[in-house]
Amino acid sequence: xxxxxxxxxxxxxxxxxxxxxxxxxxxxxxxxxxxxxxxxxxxxxxxxxxxxxxxxxxxxxxxxxxxxxxxxxxxxxxxxxxxxxxxxxxxxxxxxxxxxxxxxxxxxxxxxxxxxxxxxxxxxxxxxxxxxxxxxxxxxxxxxxxxxxxxxxxxxxxxxxxxxxxxxxxx
Amino acid sequence: xxxxxxxxxxxxxxxxxxxxxxxxxxxxxxxxxxxxxxxxxxxxxxxxxxxxxxxxxxxxxxxxxxxxxxxxxxxxxxxxxxxxxxxxxxxxxxxxxxxxxxxxxxxxxxxxxxxxxxxxxxxxxxxxxxxxxxxxxxxxxxxxxxxxxxxxxxxxxxxxxxxxxxxxxxxxxxxxxxxxxxxxxxxxxxxxxxxxxxxxxxxxxxxxxxxxxxxxxxxxxxxxxx
Lengths: 171, 226
What we know:
- The complex is a heterodimer.
- Chain A is an all-alpha fold.
- Chain A is 65% helix and 2% strand.
- Chain B has helices at residues 3-20, 25-30, 33-67, 72-101, 108-145, 149-155, 157-182, 189-195, 209-223; one strand at residues 21-23.
- Chain B contains nine helices and one strand.
- By secondary structure, chain B is an all-alpha fold.
- In chain B, helix 5 (108-145) runs antiparallel to helix 9 (209-223) and helix 6 crosses helix 7 (157-182).
- At the A-B interface, helix 1, helix 2, helix 3, helix 4 and strand 1 of A face helix 1, strand 1, helix 2, helix 3 and helix 5 of B.
């Protein structure tokens, strides 16, 4: 039997790490409505998995792991959920488009666009790297070896740099 | 551009995030999250009920087979029906096992593999049911109404021949429909309408059988150190 979840504690955790959710939703969904739906699904999964959180990991690591898992599964469905049990949550989320947001600097917008062009697994990898997670933590979240993380991140960084350089040249 | 430049740009993005998103915690506080959790539980319960129903049908068929062991005209269709029922029951159990394995706390590659395997398995299961549905229906009619096929043949051979031809013709028809659904070629509006929310298409279980296989390969490739 699962132990009852402490709702105030869950909400505090959510608030403390909400940026993780925002980042994941922004990078995995283009459409604002899809982003809201994805956010709902992530909150539901975080809630249902909360009692299984293992305190030997950082809370943010656990949140990233759950959020990325939900986002990648969600991202791979082209169809919007017809049987959404959780539509009641949609009104609590406000979302704006990062790509079209005029307050963002050009470089930020470009980085965001280039990351979106990566495949869904590499996207998760670079997001964790840019958020200062160690290779060991990234390896644990992704389920691959530390060496593999290092190789892949170097490759992605090179790709991103090349894209920036190409963009600079074209201007 | 170096690594720290990338991180600087990312951090600027991070700073702007709060201005772009808002989660209303007051509303979230009022939502009965337990109800949400029970909706998730319902999906699992549905799967378990399906398996139990299949097993009950199986038990009924076995008892029918035992009762009519001296009448091959009833015994053979009953055994055929029992075999089809148990194939779907075991497939259902296999899917249930995969559903229970889906734990979003696990590492990304492992959980994504499980999800893709589940999609493939469910899709194959639905397609198997579709292909054999016509045969299942007629076998069911024979077993439930205890129709003696030999007597039926003696009384109305034309009826038996026509029905048998329909059953046989249904297999290539069902396979043709599945092939049509799986085709990557552009589809007419009629086919698109037919596909919508069909259990045979991948929308019901994810996206596409080829897509699921492709993603499994992608995960394998991702896990390799190269």
